[in-house]
Amino acid sequence: MNNGEPGSVLLGTTDRASAVAAVKTMLRIDSSDDDVLIAALAETALGLAEQFLGQVLITRTVRQNLPALSGWQRLLAAPVQAITQVEGLTAAGTATVLPVNAYEIDIDARGDGWVRLIDGGGAAQLRVTCIAGRAEAWTSLPAPVRQGAVLLAGYLFSERDTTRPPPAAITALWRPFRGLATARAVHT
After folding, report:
1. Does residue 51 contact residue 5 with C-beta atoms inside 8 Å?
2. By CB neighbour count within 10 A (0-12 exposed, 13-18 middle, 19+ buried), where does 77 fall?
3. How far apart are alpha carbons 43 and 57 in whole angstroms?
4. What is the rounded distance in angstroms from the CA atom of residue 84 to the CA atom of residue 127?
5. CB 3.0 to 4.6 Å from 80: which of 52, 113, 117, 124, for a disulfide?
6. pLDDT at 4 over 90
7. Per-residue pLDDT tens digits for 59-88
8. How many Å from the N-terminal Cα to the C-terminal Cα in the chain?
9. Are 128 and 68 in contact (CB under 8 A)?
10. Three-state secondary structure of 37-84
11. Positive or negative, the Cα torsion across 117, 120, 123, 126?
12. 2 pLDDT exceeds 50?
């Protein structure tokens, strides 16, 4: 199940068309024969960019399961714009929306989302739903991030049978936007 987690990208219609157009321009392709493949490769490239950068690039809803623990727990998706729902999951997987007094939520200045369970009502896990993302659309991504995704999608298209690694320029374009955690994040 695609839960919108970082690295799991499914572009909407407008973003998909923009990404496909950018890749086709770079590859100098005029026909629409390979549009489905190019779209899939663009989504793969964006997913790899998200994994490399440690952030959700285009805003979407993300669901994450966490253990039902009482301490603060950081969500994997970032930057978080809003935490919209916290549910308790039984061992059998049945979900129940928790009342607002059963947990605390916080979004820090870096965009990290945090959840702390107060009373899980016997839940084995929490399922947290949030809205996360750096940009609202493909066209509003920083140009180097977008260009790196285009280069990677183009490479995946044109070098399908190669064993050569992708061009180093891709990560060079992405590196300034990488959110590295040098220590385990702790909620203060």
Report:
1. no
2. buried
3. 11
4. 11
5. 113
6. no
7. 999 999 999 998 999 998 999 999 999 999
8. 33
9. no
10. HHHHHHHHHHHHHHHHHCCCCECEEEEEEEECCCCEEECCCCCEEEEE
11. negative
12. no
* Tens digit of each residue's pLDDT (9 = 90 or more) over 142-159: 999 999 999 999 999 999
| Residue among 158, 149, 161, 173 at smallest CA distance from 16 | 149
Q: Residue written as tokens 């199940």?
A: 1
Model pTM greater than 0.70? Answer: yes
Residue type, 22: A
Structure tokens at 36: 């489905």
167-171 long-range contacts, Cβ below 8 Å, gap at least 24? 171/52
Structure confidence at residue 99 (pLDDT): 94
Q: List phi, psi (to 5°) of 51.
A: -65, -40
Distance CA 116, CA 118 (A): 6
- Residue 166 backbone dihedrals phi, psi, to 5 degrees: -65, 160
Q: How far are the Cα atoms of 32, 57, 87, 102 from residue 90, in angstroms, in the given order?
A: 48, 32, 10, 15
Residue pair 77/56 in contact by the 8 Å Cβ criterion: yes
